[in-house]
């Protein structure tokens, strides 16, 4: 009986301590005089976060409420964790460029031991990030992009054939899946050196694994996903994992088998995997020899970044062009004129001459930023310039990219699709931090050239042959899947497709 009483006292003390700690955390911004939304005891300000509501909408609402509060940032709570959300463009520039050394960690979950595929360049922090970035940067030079162009162009021809085949059955087409199969084949060839053939076979293994990766999460219970997002380091200490076992095993096997075959037969290819194999051999920059798990994680990043970001960007672009026929016709005319000047062939140089295509992709990424927020974490206390405030060491910082892209003071009529926002003159007239789909500074998206090139080639191939318009299944506003970290259509995108 005495033992039971002692246990009850211990439980009561522990519960009391936990409740006290939570309550203290939830007073964090109030105690410091920072504007903030009153937090819920459990959810903080993140009710519905990546469960019923995509994070971009939650941060957009808060941004609109506090952007004119008189301070350059406002307080937010991910559950009980205090987060500083930056609204001032100059402070954003400080965080991601000028004072980068104090904000060089993204505060993302990774677990090298139990979940090695998560330990890639986008997630890792500390001393691992910088040398890895330096080693991988040569993969994405304009010279390497030009070398990969013919390979992607070849896959885009198969994309056109896949659309042709689909039209023989029905001209109301769900385009997201077709475009994801296109990017799967591109990434499989350029990153893994593997012919995926998912455009010919929608059930090909690479495509199936990509579908699983983004639609069948390891944790379907939203609070667990939010816990890993909010407390990534604690989640790592607890040995938690984010990647499904079957996905992990598939990618590890593909990489191991390919690396083993290339090393055994001394095969050299000018692709992403080859650079990682050379890094494994040379042990430069004091990084130590790359393990097969490290090679697999970087290749996995290339897959997830190129697979879903480019396909959704193309899907959203075609959705907007279907609603804006004049813009679509203007782009098609520019594409056809460029093709005529090059005897019907699209070259790397010719692709980059189509200025209006760049404007359309930029406007698409403004309305549909694949990453709705950028995250950083303070390494030391940071005195916010021209204020009395300090962002303390260990506080997570969020840059609300989507909310800035929808700020009507920056982009009038933000819900309108208008590529003319991105003429050279208009771009120069705005603060450089008003368009951040790829981030900026030392930790910007390393693969932005590749992603844009892949999207351009796919759109050129399709728009030169097909016309896109709305159909009865086209949503008036694309519903977003709240679960994935990146922006993704919940119900696909249906458009009417006709041969030109």
Per-chain topology:
Elements (H helix, E strand, L loop, with lengths): L1 H24 L2 H4 L23 H12 L6 E6 L2 E6 L2 H10 L30 H8 L5 H26 L4 E3 H18 L12 H11 L6 H9 L1 H6 L7 H21 L6 H11 L9 H32 L1 H17 L6 H4 L3 H13 L6 E4 L4 E2 L6 E2 L4 E4 L1 H5 L18 H6 L18 H16 L2 E4 L24 E6 L1
Parallel strand pairs: 2-7
Antiparallel strand pairs: 1-2, 3-9, 4-7, 5-6, 8-9
Helix pairs in contact: 6-7, 6-19, 7-13, 11-13, 12-13, 13-16, 13-19
Q: What does this protein structure show overall?
A:
- By secondary structure, the chain is of the alpha+beta class.
- It has a single domain, classed as Cytochrome P450 (Cytochrome p450, Orthogonal Bundle).
- 51% of the residues lie in helices and 7% in strands.
- The protein is built from 19 helices and 9 strands.
- The strands form 3 sheets. A 4-stranded mixed beta sheet has the order 1-2-7-4. A 3-stranded antiparallel beta sheet has the order 3-9-8. A two-stranded antiparallel ribbon has the order 5-6.
- Helix 6 runs antiparallel to helix 7, helix 11 packs across helix 13 and helix 13 packs across helix 16.
- It is globular and about 85 Å long.
- The relative contact order is 0.15.
- The mean pLDDT is 87.
């Amino acid at each position: 009986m005495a033992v039971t009483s002692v246990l009850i006292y211990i439980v009561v003390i522990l519960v009391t301590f936990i409740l006290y700690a939570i309550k203290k955390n939830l007073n964090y911004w109030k105690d410091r005089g920072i504007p903030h939304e009153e937090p819920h005891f459990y959810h903080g300000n993140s009710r519905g976060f990546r469960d019923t509501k995509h994070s971009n909408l939650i941060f957009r609402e808060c941004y609109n409420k506090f952007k004119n509060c008189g301070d350059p940032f406002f307080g937010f709570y991910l559950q009980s964790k205090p987060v500083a959300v930056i609204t001032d463009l100059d402070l954003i520039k400080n965080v991601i460029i000028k004072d980068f050394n104090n904000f060089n960690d993204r505060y993302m979950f990774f677990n090298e031991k139990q979940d090695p595929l998560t330990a890639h360049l986008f997630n890792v922090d500390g001393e691992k990030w910088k040398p890895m970035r330096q080693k991988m940067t040569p993969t994405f030079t304009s010279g390497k992009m030009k070398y990969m162009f013919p390979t992607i162009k070849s896959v885009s021809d198969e994309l056109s054939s896949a659309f042709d085949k689909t039209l023989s059955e029905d001209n109301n087409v769900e385009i997201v899946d077709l475009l994801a199969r296109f990017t799967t084949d591109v990434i499989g060839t350029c990153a893994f050196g593997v012919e995926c053939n998912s455009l010919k076979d929608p059930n090909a293994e690479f495509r199936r694994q990509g579908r699983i990766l983004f639609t069948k999460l390891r944790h379907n219970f939203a609070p667990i996903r939010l816990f890993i997002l909010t407390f990534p380091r604690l989640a790592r200490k607890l040995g938690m994992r984010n990647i499904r076992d079957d996905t992990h095993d598939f990618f590890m096997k593909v990489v191991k088998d390919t690396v083993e075959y290339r090393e055994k037969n001394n095969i050299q290819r000018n692709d992403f995997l080859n650079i990682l194999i050379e890094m494994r051999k040379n042990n430069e920059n004091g990084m130590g020899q790359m393990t097969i798990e490290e090679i697999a994680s970087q290749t996995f990043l290339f897959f997830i970044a190129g697979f879903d970001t480019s396909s959704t960007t193309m899907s959203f672009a075609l959705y907007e062009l279907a609603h804006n026929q004049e813009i679509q016709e203007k782009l098609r005319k520019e594409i056809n004129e460029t093709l005529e000047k090059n005897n019907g062939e699209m070259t790397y140089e010719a692709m980059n001459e189509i200025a209006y295509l760049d404007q359309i992709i930029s406007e698409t990424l403004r309305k549909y930023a694949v990453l709705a927020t950028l995250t950083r974490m303070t390494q030391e206390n940071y005195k916010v310039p021209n204020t009395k405030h300090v962002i303390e060491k260990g506080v997570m910082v969020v840059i609300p990219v989507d909310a800035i892209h929808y700020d009507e003071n920056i982009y009038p009529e933000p819900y309108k699709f208008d590529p003319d926002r991105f003429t050279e003159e208009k771009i120069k007239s705005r603060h450089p931090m008003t368009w951040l789909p790829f981030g900026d500074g030392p930790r910007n998206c390393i693969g932005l050239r590749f992603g844009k090139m892949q999207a351009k080639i796919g759109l050129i191939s399709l728009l030169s042959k097909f016309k896109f318009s709305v159909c009865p299944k086209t949503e008036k506003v694309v519903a977003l899947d709240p679960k994935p970290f990146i922006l993704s259509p919940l119900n696909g995108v249906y458009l009417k497709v006709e041969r030109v």
